[in-house]
Structures are given as structure tokens and as C-alpha cells.
Amino acid sequence: MRISLTVSLFFLLIACSEVNTPLNKGNLINTSLKTTQLPDGGLDYAVWEPPGYKAGQTLPLIISLHGGGGSQEELESLVPSILEEMAKGDFPAAIWSMPSAGRSFYMNAKDGSADWESVIVDEYIPVVMRQYGITDTNNVVITGVSMGGMGGLRIAFKYPEKFGAVAVLEPAIEATFNWEALTISDTFYRKDIYTKIFGDPVDPEYWEANHPTAIANVRPRSLDDLNIYIEVGDVDSLKLYRGVEFLHRVLFDHGVEHEYRLVRGADHVGSEFMKLRFVNMLGFVNRHFNPVEEGMSSMVSKKQLSTLVDYFDFEPDVPLRSHRSEHRKDGDL
After folding, report:
1. For residues 268 and 190, what is the distance between their CA atoms, to the nearest angstrom?
2. Is residue 9 included in any domain, yes or no?
């Protein structure tokens, strides 16, 4: 079964032929950079400057990765929600940028035909940071939806020192640590893509080295300073709730602090519901830039309490013991 998807947060793909398109509020710029790492010799991307932005002003940078089959044009569809949250004082002014990556998985192809990850990490993001005078990586956040969520997690988990936070919606990740354990529930909607990216036949070690959950499982302590937000709908038609729940459990059992939402009644993408989920994600990103004082105090208290585990004979917080194996009665599921 083959399903071809073009994923947009709001199903709005607004064509924009001009290089620099003023919006009624803010400024949308479509541009590109030359590179030898992609077959076409260039990477197209969009940048949005918020209302009132002036050259030389230092603002946070938010990299937004589109879903499979999308393009930089999807950045414009996010602007109305961003402006609404800014008007309410619930989100700061920031530079937003989105590259066009088709169905690349934002990955370096195993056969060397295209190095999307390298272009994004080593060329594109540094170019945008230099253009807007951004030097503090804590002020750089990577976000994404579906394939873009998978790409955002992989890039942030592989290079956590380059970002302050990663916040993704319904990331297209599988519910396993290794290639051999994949099932049709993990692959049915894109099984034709794997050999194009991970080798033909697929190289299991290459797949695992680029699977966000496997990366988190091997190097959990490298993620301790990264703010992480993951969410997924519990009726996602691509069954992505399996992989995202699995990642949540791995992060939890390794004691990697993060925010996780299993959204009741939410399918894959959508319109109004997806807008609400995007706004919730903006709330998390806002708290990264503007921490809630009460939350900061609570985190300090939690760390202090953890030092008293032996004194009070507390059970360690993580990993959780399996309630199914230790506490169930005969006849229980």
C-alpha cells in the first residue's frame, strides 16, 4: 500500500513567485543558497521577519521543517497563528525560516546522491544565523511536522549543542530501536522511500544511526540541556502514536526531561485542530525563551529532592518498574 502525502499544517500552499514579499505584517523573503551537496546545486528557503524588525536587531531564530512533499511555501501558512500569539503577548518576536526539502527525510542519502542533513546543519542554518547576527545557540529552536518532526528530532539529537530546544508535531518515527524489528505498521505509508535514503538494500546500521529514538537511547545524557517537546494524535492515521509514545518512554526511562502530549481525537495533520496543536507548541517554545518562574523553582526543588533518595528510601524515579509483570493478577491483561 502506497500513500503519497504532502503535509502542511493548515493545508495551505500559497505560491509566491517574488523574492521579497511584504505581508500586511512582517516580511516574507524567498531566497536560496548555492551548494555542492545537493544534485540541483542549491537549497531554496524562506525567511519571515516579524513586524517592526530592523536590520541589526537580534532576535531568536526558529527553524521550521515541513512535512513530506512540502516546501518553503508552507512557512507563510504559519504566519497568521504566530501573529495572533504575538498580539496576545504569548510569543516573542522571532525570525522564522523554512527550507525546501521534498521527501528527503532531511538526511544524507547512503549512496551519497544528496547530503540534506549536512547542507542544513553546516550551511543553511549558519547562513541564516550570520545574516541575523545570532550567536547564542540557546536562541535557536528547530521545529517540524511529520517528516519535518522526524528531521527536527534527528538533527537536534545528533547536534544538541547547536540548539536550545526542539519542538515537533506528530514526528514520523518508528516504534523500535533497530531496522530488523520494524513492522508494516511502521512502514506502510512510505515503504518505497527507505531504499532511496538508507541504501538498497537498507543498511541496518545506517538506519539505526539516524533513528531519533535509537540516538536518544544510546546518548541520553547529551540531551540533558536540550528542551524537548513531542506530541502526536491518538488517532493518527499513519499510526505515528506508536513511535512517538515509544520515544516518550525511552526519554522518560533515561531521565531526559521533556514535554509529551498524546492529543485526544487528533488525526494526522488537519486544519483547525492542527492550528490548536501548533499554538500549543508555540506555548512551549515561548516558555523556552521566557521560562515561567514557578516552573524553574519546581525544577530546582526536584533536583534537590533527588539527592535525598537514599535518606528517605525513595524508589528511583526512573526507569519505572513494569506494572504488568509485577502487579497484575491472573486474568488481567
Report:
1. 15
2. no
